[in-house]
Amino acid sequence: MQRAVTLTLLLLALAGYSASLFLPVFECELGDGVMGYHVLMFGWFELFALDPRWLANLTAAWLVVAMIRDRRGRDVIPLALLTLALAIGSAWFPTAGCGDGEGAQLPSLGLQPGGYLWVGAVSLIALCACATYWRARSAGSPYR
After folding, report:
1. For residue 102, what pLDDT is reported?
2. Intervals of the chain under pLDDT 70
3. How far apart are CA 42 and CA 40, in angstroms?
4. Dihedrals phi, psi of 137, to nearest 5 degrees
5. What is the reported pLDDT for 1?
6. What pLDDT shows up at residue 100?
7. How far apart are CA 137 and CA 41, in angstroms?
8. What single-letter DSSP state applies at residue 141?
9. How far is Cα 90 from Cα 56, in angstroms, rounded to an integer?
10. 99 - beta bridge partners?
11. pLDDT given for residue 142 in this prediction
């Protein structure tokens, strides 16, 4: 029964992640904000600015694949905690995701509904990965 609950929560998280792509994510001074699919496509440029929060997308994807493939290695917990920290950090710290209309980057004023939905979805993915790991460990299943 616990596996069914974890799977349901994982599907809910994936639905929330998908919905966040079509909602405004950042609140900007100018305009209506930045859409989620823009952040997914171009957010990796933030890595050059030493802002690693976009990596939560990659780590969450890795965790989903690991859960689908039923991989329960010891690397799941540290990666899930990193994913959780990156996602939650996005809610507290502004990012340079807004433009001023002349090509310069401005910090965002905060998150909009898509941003909060993304934080929740990625956090739920990380928690589902932890639950899968701990359930397998308590059942005495070998690490793979």
Report:
1. 65
2. 1, 49-50, 71-72, 96-105, 139-144
3. 6
4. -70, -40
5. 44
6. 61
7. 37
8. P
9. 10
10. 105
11. 55
Which candidate, 72, 54, 75, 68, places its Cα nearest to that of 122?
Answer: 54
The predicted-structure confidence for 106-136, as pLDDT tens digits, reads as follows 777 878 899 999 999 999 999 999 888 877 7
In 3D space, the residue among 138, 131, 5 whose CA is nearest the CA of residue 80 turns out to be 131
Burial class (CB in 10 A: 0-12, 13-18, 19+), 37: middle
Q: Let me know: does 30 contact 142? Beta carbons within 8 Å.
A: no
Read off the tokens for 59.
């780590």
Q: What is the pTM of this model?
A: 0.84
- Decide: residue 52, CB within 10 A, 0-12 exposed, 13-18 middle, 19+ buried: middle
Q: Point out which residues pair with 98 in neighbouring strands.
A: 106
Write the burial class of residue 137 (CB in 10 Å: 0-12 exposed, 13-18 middle, 19+ buried): middle
Task: Provide the angle, in degrees to the nearest 10, between the axes of the packed helices 55-68 and 2-20.
Answer: 150
Q: What is the DSSP letter of 142?
A: P
Pairing of strands 98-99, 105-106: antiparallel
For 119, the token pair is: 């934080």
Q: Cα 70 from chain centroid?
A: 20
